[in-house]
Amino acid sequence: MTSHTRRRILRGAALAAAGSVVGGYGLGHYATAARAATPGTAAGGGDPFPFLEGAFAPVTEELTEFGLQVTGRIPRDLDGRYLRTGPNALGVEDPRAHHWMLGDGMVHGVRLRDGRAEWYRNRWVRSSQVARKLGEPYPGEAPPDDFACNTHVIPYKGRILALQESGPLPYELDGELNTVRPHDFRSTLEGAFTAHTKYDAVADELHAVAYYPTWDHVRHLMIDRTGRVARTTRIPVADAPMMHDFALTEKYVVIVDLPITFDLAAAEAGALVPYVWNPGHPMRVGVMPRTGGVTRWFKIDPVYYSHTLNAYDQGDTVVMELTTMPAPFHAAGRGNGGPSATGTPVLDRWTIDLRAGRVRSTRIDDLPQEFPRVNESLVSRRHRFAYAASAAEMWRAYETVDGVPPDDKFTNCLVKHDMLRSSRQVHRFPDGAAAGEPVFVPRRGARDEDDGYLLSYVHDPDRGASDLVILSAQDFTGRPLARVHLPGRVPLGFHGSWVPDA
Ligand SMILES: [Fe+2]
């Protein structure tokens, strides 16, 4: 393998599966994956690059605005920053050589304090490539697999970390979203990390499952209360599968070995995201003790597992709630510059029976939805309430490529689930609203699980810019408590967090 090829592979692999919502039907074999991402090959019919248009279109400026206009009243106990990231390609010269999930990461943040929205900022993560494109110096030497992390942004022990799977180190940001430096957990992280960590607030442990195209295993990492990788468990897997997310309970780590695997031929042919649907790779769910040890594997029918809502132990079972899509799923669609699939994401429950050795899959909700979240204090423990988002624009992007009609149920809304009552509430937004991932923030002094707020960036088509919408989680369908009017548009993106003031 030439060094150029290796760089290309690592870059593509590192950025694969930013995870997110997808649609349309792709052909799904190696050649398709390669063709999809090879410059000089255009898709036929319609707009071939929907992920660079409309609600996905990258913004071109970094803005700073103070004293934002607000409709309604911002709760005074919201003291911190709402941050959300996503791909925002900087200087795309040839859209045919671009993939949505490879866009340079941009974090959008709003600072709330004393009932006011003090500022809005949007900032690219300064990887060496972004610094170069912006004509700025990059301090020091760039780390291996350097990339402007675009998938998640989390608070961790007083720091803010922008995260990416399969290769790049996290980047630390300061409170005004400036890039500080790569973060390697006090020099204890060896190799790849992930975008979807699980923080157990009770144990004060940060868990991750990392993958990398040249590994014959994936790694479960436990970062202890000192902020160091305290334990690494290598879990052997064949074919180098993509592993965008995982689940954590009080006892177990749950990993999903998807039939989406690294493909050298696709990489050699120039695929930007050289991961393909691989029918020869059996789908299975692995359950490993949190403290390490042997992974037990359970067969499951092929499906695309997108994101974990949460998971918990229940007697001899492990219960995992997650968003799924029908198989097959293609990380690189037919020249559309993004992923494609055969249907919309829905919310499922997998009950893993450790005694019987079986997984039972049930549908919680067939309303198309993604970006599922719980009250973060309950990660790895049983929850009652859950939240998710639907953005019709996400779907229409895929329709233009593959002709799959959008589901008429798929709309612009935020969703609240009550798992105890098996019910849901929907907070609707108008056409063109493009609602993003909702994040739950507990009210100060809250005792009830859902006593708090939902924060989400929602586009306002009338204004041509986005709002930070704040809902009361206990009055979910009521009028928003506040809409903070941002000076620009927040493109449809990925994940984020509330970062409370210390
Ligand atoms: Fe994700």
Task: Describe the structure in your own words.
The protein is mainly beta. It has a single domain, classed as 6 Propeller (Neuraminidase), CATH 2.120.10.30. The chain is 9% helix and 38% strand. A five-stranded antiparallel β-sheet has the order 1-5-4-3-34, with no helix packed on it. A hairpin with a 3-residue loop joins strand 14 and strand 15 (252-257). The longest helix is centred in the N-terminal third of the chain and has 13 residues, at 3-15. Bound molecules: fe (ii) ion (FE2). Residues 19-20, 151, 195-196, 244, 307, 494-495 line the site of fe (ii) ion.
**Which sheet architecture does the biggest sheet show?**
5 strands, antiparallel
- Specify the helix fraction band: under 10%
Oligomer: single chain
Q: Would you tell me the overall average pLDDT?
A: 88
Number of strands: 34
By secondary-structure content and strand pairing, the structural class works out as mainly beta
CATH topology name:
Neuraminidase
User: Hetero groups bound?
Assistant: fe (ii) ion
Fraction of residues in β-strands: 35-45%
How are the strands ordered across the major sheet?
1-5-4-3-34
**Low-pLDDT regions:** 1-46
* Rg from Cα: 21 Å
CATH superfamily: TolB, C-terminal domain
Number of helices: 5
Mass-distribution shape = globular
Q: Count structural domains.
A: 1
Organism: Streptomyces pulveraceus
EC number: 1.13.11.-
Protein name: Dioxygenase
Family: Belongs to the carotenoid oxygenase family.
